[in-house]
Amino acid sequence: MAYSQGFSPHPKVSWVGAAPTGVASEAEYVEVSVVEKVDPVALKVALDEALPPGIDVVDIVQAQGGNLTERIDASEWRIELDGVEPEELAKAVSVLLAAESVEVERLTKNGTKMLDVRPAVVSALVEPRSSDAGHDATALSRPCGILMTVVRQVTPTVRPDDVLNALRVVADLVPPVPARATRMAQGRLDGEGRLVDPLQQDRES
Question: Measured between alpha carbons, how far is 47 from 45 in angstroms, rounded to an integer?
Answer without folding.
Answer: 6
